[in-house]
Specification:
Length: 414
């Protein structure tokens, strides 16, 4: 079986010849029956060789229950290793072979059905990562997590729901707290970074969680700890760019030191890919800054429109409409509208970068424009058209004020 595995690993034609139902049925027997750890390790290696870069093999692994067998062995192996620590090296080799087989089943090419099945052990993976510090043990798990959640939003959400983002972020922070990072340490923190990046790509909720827990600054700490010649620098910069794509300005504001680090990398690196990645990140920062400035300007315009509207309504306080010797005063209604304006102003001081805030601002702006024109026409008609009777004047003014309350007040309940 080992000879067949070696032949399949290095030859696509051999792989295609052995990727069939009979081979996977045989592997199912090997993995499901009780055998020595070395035998199961060889069967796992054979499984990995059959499914790597082969979508047909991935599907056959699931349909023949080989994938389910590997997941069961993964659980059993983790329990033995953590509870008895018996034959650590032997268990570690089996652990590595099983994880490699699972990696081949879920990705390259991506297989969503297999990813969904493998997501059942994600909580177990995060529990082990939180309890263990051995790179040999956690490294294969981090690689498995990254491949299992890559391009799969349901699995990304499961990572967040099972506490995986927090666990990986804490694990990364602990690794960075070491004074010096050796080569193996660098490779390990890059595995954590890649797993985090795969868990957050195009997932806004995960990115917001990551930002709220200081994840962006941790990534910059990682960037400062790595040698610029390290291949993983590009992956970290890309991860930062993915985070900034969905970041809100109040969370994603970079310090001058962090921006300086990016500029320094830009001037010193000779990698064309890294130059493009850094320029992309810096452009994201500029968009955030421009967005904040534009939103403040928009808020100023809306406040000005509300003030203008209030001034027109306040002007009506001095106007009295007589009807059969009685005076109709609008001071009570005007005070209520002033409270409405103050409430709107306070509301506008809150966050406006999210979708709901933008929707509210847009509606207020639209209502102010529409009503400002209507009220201006009404007041103009009341002031200059002396042919209108006093009753008509009062009716026009009442309709204008009522229209203001009906249009502006619903916005406050959004």
């Amino acid at each position: 079986m080992l000879c067949l595995a070696c032949a399949v690993e290095n030859n696509v034609f051999s792989q295609n010849a052995l990727v069939n139902a009979e081979t996977f049925s045989y592997l199912h027997q090997c993995l499901s029956e009780k055998h020595s750890r070395q035998y199961i390790q060889t069967a796992s290696y054979f499984l990995m060789c059959l499914v790597t870069n082969n979508s047909v093999g991935q599907n056959l692994a699931r349909e023949s229950s080989c994938l389910s067998d590997a997941l069961l062995l993964f659980r059993q192996c983790s329990e033995v290793n953590r509870m008895t620590h018996d034959s650590y090296e032997e268990v570690l080799l089996l652990w590595t072979s099983l994880t490699a087989a699972l990696n081949g089943c879920v990705n390259n090419p991506q297989n969503e059905a297999n990813q969904r099945l493998c997501s059942t052990i994600l909580p177990l993976c995060f529990k082990i990562i939180a309890e263990e510090n051995h790179h040999e043990l956690c490294g294969p798990l981090l690689l498995f997590v990254g491949l299992t959640v890559s391009g799969n939003k349901l699995n990304q959400d499961r990572v967040r729901q099972s506490g995986g983002l927090d666990t990986m972020l804490n694990h990364l922070q602990k690794s960075l707290n070491r004074l010096d990072l050796g080569w193996r340490d660098e490779q390990h923190v890059l595995l954590i970074s890649n797993a985090l990046s795969s868990s957050m790509t195009d997932n806004e909720r995960n990115i917001h969680f990551f930002l709220e827990h200081g994840g962006l600054h941790v990534l910059f700490s990682l960037l400062e700890s790595l040698d610029m010649a390290c291949d993983g620098v590009l992956g970290v910069v890309i991860a930062i760019g993915h985070v900034l794509e969905f970041a809100e300005n109040r969370f994603a504001a970079l310090t001058s030191k962090e921006q300086g680090k990016l500029i320094k990398l830009l001037t010193e690196t000779q990698s064309e890919e890294l130059v493009h990645a850094i320029k992309y990140v810096l452009s994201q920062c500029q968009e955030l800054a421009d967005g904040a400035e534009n939103k403040e300007e928009e808020q100023t315009k809306i406040r000005s429109k509300i003030d203008e509207l209030l001034a027109k309504i306040q002007h009506t306080e001095e106007m009295e409409c007589l009807d059969d010797g009685q005076t109709l005063c609008r001071k009570g209604e005007t005070a209520e509208l002033r409270q409405t304006k103050d409430s709107l102003s306070n509301h506008l001081q809150g966050p406006s970068s999210n979708a709901q805030g933008q929707s509210v601002m847009s509606r207020i702006h639209q209502l102010c424009n529409e009503h400002g024109k209507s009220l201006a026409e009404t007041l103009h008609g009341q002031t200059l058209n002396g042919q209108l009777s006093s009753t008509s004047n009062r009716l026009c003014l009442r309709n204008a004020l009522s229209l203001t309350k009906r249009k502006v007040m619903p916005v406050m309940s959004v």
